[in-house]
Specification:
Number of helices: 1
Shape: elongated
Helix content: 10-25%
Distance between the termini: 128 Å
Strand order of the largest sheet: 3-11-5-9-8
CATH class: Mainly Beta
CATH topology: Jelly Rolls
């Protein structure tokens, strides 16, 4: 005996709807996964582009620092004001120099600035954004110059923050600039301006410092490097600016005997 099972048209319709719903759900899930994969891929590409552009800009900074070191070691060579890498359309580096210094000088680090030959005037130092009870630094200043074919040095130990280690200080005045606490001025005349330079060493802790001089008195004090890089399609770009003082000998090479006045060594 055979049995016959018949499906009504309504049952066929229900099966079709279920199939469509399942297909729609699978399609939505597939599109969601594909969209997420695309976004992750785009994000990875953007991160790679950003890293590549940053590396290019950073390479420009390193090259500029090398150029500055070569120029300071042999001033017969020329320091380029601008240069670029092989991808010249997408990388540009500029170097500018200033006859004043503004920045932070860490403890046990010497700042060096050169004085122009035959120039006279005043060098003024403003330093420390903190008062003595907040950790302000005193300064040890060495003024090196040629005298009679030999090198002489005048040392100044300057500051208003007396401590057990820093004694017989030369007093500083209140700074005339709003950002700083202390000020001291050194006179440069015909007897101490030949082959002359200053070395400034913060004592006990680092300090913010601004150094400036009379017109044309400082040969150079600080370089500013600006390195810009960009992807060919303009999708990513980076600019890095670095300020640095002229290269100087390490602070441990400084030798000073200080007793509250300027001494010739």
């Amino acid at each position: 005996m055979q049995k016959h099972i018949a499906f009504s048209s309504s049952q066929d319709g229900q099966v079709g709807v279920i199939v469509l719903l399942i297909s729609a759900i699978i399609l939505v899930i597939g599109l969601s996964i594909a969209n997420r994969t695309i976004r992750e891929s785009q994000s990875n590409i953007a991160q790679e582009d950003t890293a590549r552009v940053f590396s290019t800009a950073e390479s420009g900074i390193q090259q500029a620092l090398g150029n500055i070191f070569q120029f300071e070691s042999d001033q017969n060579i020329q320091l380029p004001a601008e240069f670029s890498f092989e991808d010249a359309n997408f990388n540009q580096v500029s170097i500018s120099s200033a006859d004043e210094f503004t920045g932070f000088v860490p403890e046990k680090t010497a700042l060096e600035v050169r004085i122009s030959d035959t120039q006279t005037g005043n060098l003024t130092l403003h330093w420390s954004q903190s008062a003595c009870d907040q950790g302000a630094a005193n300064l040890l200043i060495g003024h090196y110059f040629l005298s009679g074919g030999a090198t002489d040095v005048n040392y100044y130990m300057v500051g208003n923050c007396a401590s057990q280690s820093d004694q017989n200080l030369l007093s500083a005045t209140a700074s005339t600039e709003d950002l700083y606490q202390f000020q001291y001025t050194i006179g440069i005349d015909g007897s101490n301006n030949q082959g002359a330079f200053l070395r400034i060493l913060p004592l006990d802790q680092g300090t913010d410092l601004h150094l400036s001089g009379s017109s044309n008195l400082l040969a150079s004090a600080q370089y500013t490097i600006l390195s810009m890089a960009q992807m060919p399609d303009g999708s990513s770009s980076k600019a890095i600016e670095v300020k640095r003082s002229i290269p100087a000998a390490p602070a441990f090479m400084d030798f000073a005997l200080v007793s509250g006045g300027s001494l010739a060594k």
